[in-house]
Write a structure and sequence with these properties.
The complex is a heterodimer of chains A (130) and B (605). Chain A is an alpha+beta fold and 130 residues long. Chain A is built from 5 helices and 5 strands. Chain A has a 5-stranded mixed sheet. Chain A is elongated and about 55 Å long. Chain B has 605 residues and is of the alpha/beta class. In chain B, a hairpin with a 3-residue loop joins strand 3 and strand 4. Chain B folds into 5 domains: 102 residues, Glutaredoxin; 210 residues, NADH-ubiquinone oxidoreductase 51kDa subunit (Rossmann fold); 84 residues, Roll (Ubiquitin-like (UB roll)); 89 residues, de novo design (two linked rop proteins), CATH 1.20.1440; 62 residues, 2-Layer Sandwich (Alpha-Beta Plaits), CATH 3.30.70. In chain B, helix 7 packs antiparallel against helix 8, helix 10 crosses helix 13 and helix 19 runs antiparallel to helix 21. In chain B, the strands form 5 sheets. A 5-stranded mixed sheet of chain B has the order 10-9-13-11-12. Chain B has a 4-stranded mixed sheet with strand order 2-1-3-4, with helices on one face. In chain B, strands 7-6-5-8 form a 4-stranded parallel sheet, sandwiched between helices. The C terminus of chain B is likely disordered. Classes of the chains: A alpha+beta (130), B alpha/beta (605).
Chain lengths: 130, 605
């Protein structure tokens, strides 16, 4: 809970700003969505570490409008860990052979600045991930 | 606020709590800790989702995946599959009756798809015990607008233009009530939130109190500014412990944030509220009786005028509105009268919450736009009648309402159309009945309730409800005569005309509407000594259908009076002299081999 001080009108907007991540996730309407594929193959190849690194970055950068999700095996088990970056209205981009370092770079470049990272990308515009 | 990748919203309305949702929440938290996901996944409890039939309910965000009828033993699998591996678990999702494929997302489920949420917009979306979550979804924004940008007159004008009418039952225009309260001379002025929900089978107010207590507070503070009131009372029945608990927390948090008390939001405006617990009397929902109860007197109505707006609590100007009405107010102030009045019919605007119960597949709480047809509610949202039975009627408006028959299924629901049909909007209870429901028995049930709840002030109501009950009871016992129906109608009309308050004035509705639409059922009881639905005990007897009986002995074991004879694998027989007609055998039988038949032996002519 926030500190117990009497609110002024402008404080309502501040609380709303601070809690934006909450509305983003519950309305399922982020600016971007990053899905880490967490099938057995993905987890064995280190998807958990990738996920943790990604969540760390989200928190460190205080990003409120990005949804981080998990999904099952993407079907290309030998290139795991994999992640898919989606922007509203744009084809999804799949990244392969990820490590915590790589996902950090993808987050900084692609998710925050909108610049695709071609050296890690597998393909653009594959099937949409549920 | 810490960021999580997933939010698990466990429904914690009274319905889901009673089928174990707190245990589900505990199990989720335990499993998540076990897998060290507690920094990634948040578990919270929300208010009632409305789909009580399917509790305990869990929503998983992002994506809004809807899980239902969860058991503690499902949780480890669910966490592993959905939250670790990202594979939503199909077998725990909702599968509509008569279909095979589950529907993963809440918004695609028929029950939710046709609803329009205004009052219940935060149900299943926020933790009602955290004010920050309410604020996150535009909470208290309407209050900020009302306090800084609007004059009291402008607020009242907005509410009037929106066409909001009292959601407690009578449908009095809220703007008009507020204008009278504003114009009334006297100080201090008071507000009351009427949460004395007494209809059997109705739980709208409880759900709003549990799911979104801040919406009620916000509405009341806005009302206070409009009326110049400095104190409000929230009347909640003591049978609603969860509602009381959440409202207490909400008030405490609002005070800490300076949203109640002196100098609200730094604007200099002062207002505070107090919770009054009611002992639970149906008549206390009537506004003058409620005032008496808040004052510490017996809940008994008095003559109006003077109306409470002029002479209410302790003789001071008082505006009373129902829970749902107060919770609607912030939405109108924030989004405008035009937006609100675009929904609904010519005379009834906005949405209304109904509690859908009885013989219906999807029991629960629904918020729908005014003007929706009964058919859409019962067969669309409600999913029709279970067990292949036929729809017979729906009782709207609780004991004071009336039974609407199948031929009026396409009636658009608003205040006027319901009154015309002999029922009333009431607070929004909707009890669905099928062909196995005896309408005379239903009338008897409601009359029994009303004769208990009548405060006894008016002879017409005190004696009227008692006499009506006696006559109807006599008819269900097969002792009725044709003359009884005339007397019944006469007493009913007198009760309606001569009683002081809404209770007495509407107490005859169940009798009058069942007489109007189902007179043939009364006549069957009186002339043929027959209960067509097979409900009235004195007029039926239970018999074993020899062709269907497998001799499994289930009925024999279930019978409390050892009235059933028969050995294993032989057709059983019910000894009518020992049978007390409790129906336990019929419930126990898996082969529909026990039938309630017309009792011919006791014909009394």
């Amino acid at each position: 809970m926030a500190e117990k001080k009497k609110l002024r009108i402008q404080d309502l907007a501040k609380i709303r700003e601070k809690t934006k991540a909450l509305t983003t996730i519950r309305e399922s309407e982020g600016r971007a969505k990053v899905t880490v594929h967490m099938g057995t193959c993905g987890i064995a190849a280190g998807a958990r570490e990738v996920m943790e690194a990604l969540l760390d970055e989200v928190r460190k950068n205080k990003v409120q409008d990005v949804i981080v999700a998990t999904s099952g095996c993407a079907g290309l088990c030998n290139r795991e860990p994999m992640a898919t970056v989606e922007f509203k209205g744009q084809p999804p981009v799949k990244y392969v052979d990820l490590t915590p370092q790589k996902i950090k770079k993808i987050f900084a470049e692609h998710v925050l600045c909108g610049r695709l990272v071609p050296e890690y990308a597998l393909a653009v515009g594959s099937e949409t991930v549920y | 606020m810490k960021q999580y990748r997933a939010h698990l919203l466990v429904c914690a309305g009274t319905g889901c709590v009673s089928c174990g949702s707190f245990k589900i929440k505990e199990a989720l938290e335990k499993e998540i800790r076990k897998r060290k996901l507690q920094d990634e996944i948040l578990v919270i409890a929300t208010g009632c989702n409305g789909f009580c039939e399917r509790g305990p309910i869990l929503m998983v965000h992002p994506d809004g995946v809807f899980y239902q009828q969860l058991k503690v033993s499902d949780i480890p699998f669910l966490v592993e599959e959905h939250l670790v591996k990202g594979r939503p678990v199909k077998k725990l999702m909702y599968i509509p009756p008569a279909e095979k494929e589950p529907i993963p997302r809440m918004k695609d489920i028929e029950f939710f798809k046709h609803q329009r949420l205004i009052v219940l917009r935060n149900r299943g979306r926020i933790d009602p015990e955290r004010i920050d979550e309410y604020i996150a979804f535009d909470g208290y924004e309407a209050l900020a607008k009302a306090l800084t940008e609007m004059t009291p007159e402008a607020i009242i004008a907005e509410i009037t233009a929106a066409g909001l009418r009292g959601r407690g039952g009578a449908g009095f225009p809220t703007g008009k009530k507020w204008a009278a309260g504003r114009a009334a001379k006297g100080s201090p002025k008071y507000l009351i939130c009427n949460g004395d929900e007494g209809d059997p089978g109705a739980f709208m107010d409880r759900s709003v109190l549990e799911a979104d207590p801040h919406a009620i507070l916000e509405g009341m503070i806005i009302g206070a500014k409009a009326l110049g009131a400095e104190k409000g009372f929230i009347y909640i029945r003591n049978e609603y412990p969860l509602a009381l608990h959440r409202m207490d927390i909400a008030i405490k948090q609002a005070r800490e944030y300076g949203l109640l008390g002196d100098d609200i939001l730094g604007t200099g405006f002062a207002f505070d509220v107090e919770v009054v617990r009611g002992a639970g009397a149906f008549v206390s929902g009537e506004e003058t009786a409620l005032i008496a109860s808040v004052e510490g007197r017996i809940g008994m109505p008095r003559q109006r005028p003077p109306y409470p707006a002029n002479k209410g609590l302790w003789g001071k100007p008082t505006v009373i509105n129902n829970v749902e009405t107060w919770a609607t107010v912030p939405n109108i102030i924030l989004r405008g009268a035009k937006w609100f009045s675009a929904l609904g019919t010519k005379t009834s605007k906005g949405t209304k919450i109904f509690s859908l119960v009885g013989k219906i597949n999807n029991t629960g709480l629904v918020e729908v736009p005014m003007g929706i047809s009964l058919r859409d509610i019962v067969f669309g949202i409600g999913g029709g009648i279970p067990g292949g039975h036929e729809f017979k009627a729906v009782q709207i408006g609780g004991p004071s309402g009336g039974c609407i028959p199948a031929k009026l299924l396409d009636l658009p629901i608003d205040y006027e159309s319901l009154t015309e049909a002999g029922a009333m909007m009431g607070s929004g209870g909707m009890i669905v009945m099928d062909d196995k429901t005896c309408m005379v028995d239903i009338a008897k049930y409601f009359l029994n309730f009303l004769r208990d709840e009548s405060c006894g002030k008016c002879v017409s109501c005190r004696e009227g409800t008692q006499r009506m009950w006696e006559i109807v009871k006599k008819i269900t016992e097969g002792k009725g005569t044709e003359k009884d129906l005339d007397v019944l109608e006469e007493v009913a009309r007198t009760c309606k005309d001569a009683s002081l308050c809404g209770l007495g004035q509407t107490a005859a509705n169940p009798v009058l509407t069942t007489l109007q639409y189902f007179r043939h059922e009364y006549e069957a009881h009186i002339l043929d000594k027959r209960c067509p639905a097979g409900v009235c005990q004195a007029l039926i007897r239970y018999v074993v259908v020899a062709e269907k009986c497998t001799g499994c002995q289930s009925c024999k074991n279930a019978c409390p009076t050892q009235a059933i004879k028969g050995t294993l694998k032989d057709v059983h027989l019910i000894d009518q002299t020992k049978c007390i007609k409790c129906g336990a055998c019929q419930e126990a039988c898996r082969f529909e081999a026990i039938e309630a038949q017309r009792e011919e032996a006791i014909q009394i002519i």
